[in-house]
């Protein structure tokens, strides 16, 4: 029972890998939700879950859907290639869904799922968890409204071995593209430069690059640079902004920031008013959305479509560069 005596919302979770297990533990800890069923093709004992959640696991997708029909909401956190089909089935069951990023493999699938969810009158959101980072939430208004001359977003994750052979654009850079578009409110007008890492022969590589740098022109009149990779000795998730009103550094990894106003500028000091785990804040937002139908800061399917479309444009540029380089050699 919840604090007001009502029964907890029942949550169905598809996928018990790294992210799926984290979602399961988070929703299991919330006072107003209960994980009722988890689907994963692996034996429950191989999933990183406590014993009581392992007992709610099933390897049968059919059994999962049968039990999910009795739930109040669902989380889709299996392999990206399965997101579209699983979300479609859960929406068909009438369940509001939170889908791990990227929402789908192809942008048009986001719009298809969006139409399905709207037809059923239920919420469909993408788990862009960085939106709920306390440091980003504290500085979002400053990032959105100050007159910047340049902004850079850096994301380095050297420990992410699961990315080997995969695109770091759709797995890592996608976070910062979402921040740029939907937190800062910028519309990209041009891809000024797209550079990928090189292989052991010094040749450019495509979306399998271990480091990607993108420079965009936004509609606010200043360039935005995104640096993403697995190269440094330590992880970095940070935003640097410089303009006539001052400088801002947001440390997303450690949940803090430093604002240095220019002389004569006296802005309100943004405070980190809701410290804590971003994934927990996101889960609470999803619960609130199920209760009242509002987004509460969650990324919509249409926003996910916009961000994923930009990812694919960047990947096309990377492939073109790699092809041109191979022709030269």
TrEMBL record:
InterPro entries: Gfo/Idh/MocA-like_OxRdtase_N, Gfo/Idh/MocA_Oxidoreductases, NAD(P)-bd_dom_sf. PANTHER family: BILIVERDIN REDUCTASE A. Pfam families: GFO_IDH_MocA. This is Predicted dehydrogenase. SUPFAM superfamilies: Glyceraldehyde-3-phosphate dehydrogenase-like, C-terminal domain, NAD(P)-binding Rossmann-fold domains. It comes from Kushneria avicenniae. One of its GO terms (molecular function) is nucleotide binding. Residues 10-121 form the Gfo/Idh/MocA-like oxidoreductase N-terminal domain.
